[in-house]
Amino acid sequence: MTTSEEQSEARTRVHVFRDDALGDHDAVGLAAAIRRREVGAAEAARDAAARVRAVEPRLNAVQTHLDVPAHGSGGLLAGVPTFVKDNTDYQGLPTGHGSAAFAPRAARRHAPFARQLLSTGVTVLGKTRLPEFGFSPTTEYEGAEPVRNPWHTDHSAGGSSGGSAALVAAGAVPIAHANDGGGSIRIPAACCGLVGLKPTRGRMVANAQGRQLPIDLVVDGVLSRSVRDSAAFLAAAEKHWRNPKLPPVGLVEGPSDRRLRIGFLVDSPNGVRSDADTRAAVTETAERLERLGHTVEPVELSIDPHFTDDFLTYWGLLSFLIGATGRTLGTDFDRRRMDGLSRGLRETYMRAWRTTPAVLRRLKRTREAYAAGFRGLDLLLSPVLAHTTPPIGHLSPTVPYATLIERLLNYVAFTPVDNVVGTPSISVPSASATPDGLPIGVMFSARPGAERTLLELAFALEADRPFRRLQDV
């Protein structure tokens, strides 16, 4: 590599790992250092805030800073600094949902998940940015700077939890809140080289908005740099509240000796073909799994051919409902100020609203077809996304809607099924990268309640070949 190429890469990569209280600890490591009194929680919060200030001018990941960090009490992750995504109420902070359609007001109380997050002991430093109402798989805007990928700032950090992903990948905080209604944990994890576990529907405390919808797509979680952080968060959150209808997960601490039967596919069931780099990453992962003793076999997943159109209609229904009820968010709400993607989704739904009952019936039946695809299998391996991380602008809400929606559907072709069915799914970094060094994620999906199996396999892959670290590139 020439000197000019090295300088160019240095300009496009951003991280703030350094010799301070955080060091290069993950959340579990930092919490252990705090328990041993090697560092203090206040010191960790101070140094994390300094890292955020250093990285923010280049990443644009933060929506709101807390003037005084809010420390949780006790918990497995006591003292670990973090951020809450700006679609979740946090008492005293405005909840803006990434939208310019209204002026948000300060929340009067914590959302149930914010309380569950605080129960793990984390220290909240503020809120992270997301695209408008979480609809987009990239965190970009019509009238504001995009959130940038710390691996290459000319590229998307993913969405909708893009702000959280950018901060974690860059080393500003070890772990951050994310939620997933169509891929919004797993997509930014794949784009930024992180671990992103979407839990089973009902595993976390209920999301107030999702509970009122005919199909609850959204579940909360975190983005992390290590498998053990995602496992520790889940175990800690379970101590606050556990759904008695699901088997407990407990604390998963490493791989299992169990040999799994894993199906894999490289192209989407709805006919979208993955690009060459993505196919190579999934194939290489399948070969690694076989070397680790698992049985891996190609499978075809049969879902209703209407699935993509039906999901798009349901997506449009969500935008329509926000447009119709937006004044509950702010008295000045004006749906005409919603961005191009939100307006396009809403208008698409208004043309197809009469099909809503049939759409809902077909989407709910996806559970049966998906379960049939798992017969004889423990897990399913697939891409997270049909192609590698796009440059800023490719999926911007400023792109004409017809072009934008075609690009979106050819990109987000794998993740939504798990949201409709309610099954758990995890994105982990593959051993591969794009020619310009961007991470490529691979995805494992499981039956409802099988988070332990997902985490154990993710531990095995991480132990076999540690994930690439931004600070080492």
Detailed description of the structure:
A hairpin with a 5-residue loop joins strand 12 (425-433) and strand 13. The chain has helices at 3-12, 27-35, 41-59, 112-119, 162-169, 186-192, 208-211, 227-240, 276-291, 307-325, 340-352, 356-373, 401-409, 416-421, 451-464; strands at residues 62-71, 81-85, 123-128, 148-149, 152-156, 175-180, 195-198, 219-224, 261-264, 295-298, 379-383, 425-433, 439-445. Helix 10 (307-325) packs across helix 12. The protein has one domain (3-472): Amidase signature (AS) enzymes, CATH 3.90.1300.10. It has an 8-stranded mixed sheet, with helices on both faces. A 3-stranded mixed sheet has the order 1-3-2. It has a two-stranded antiparallel sheet with strand order 4-5. It has 473 residues and is of the alpha+beta class. 37% of the residues lie in helices and 15% in strands. It is globular and about 60 Å long. The mean pLDDT is 96. It contains 15 helices and 13 strands.
Spell out the key features of this protein:
473 residues, alpha+beta, Amidase signature (AS) enzymes, eight-stranded mixed sheet, three-stranded mixed sheet, 15 helices, 37% helix, 15% strand, globular
Q: Which overall shape is indicated by the principal axes computed on the Cα atoms? A: globular
Could you give the order of the helices and strands?
HHHEEHEEEHEHEHEHEHEHHHEHHEEH
Mean pLDDT: 96
Oligomeric state of the chains present here: single chain
Helix amount = 25-40%
Question: Any idea of the CATH class?
Answer: Alpha Beta
Largest sheet: 8 strands, mixed
Query: Strand percentage, roughly?
Result: 15-25%
Overall structural domain count: 1
Q: How many β-strand runs?
A: 13
Assign the CATH architecture: Alpha-Beta Complex
Radius of gyration: 21 Å
What do we call the CATH homologous superfamily?
A: Amidase signature (AS) domain
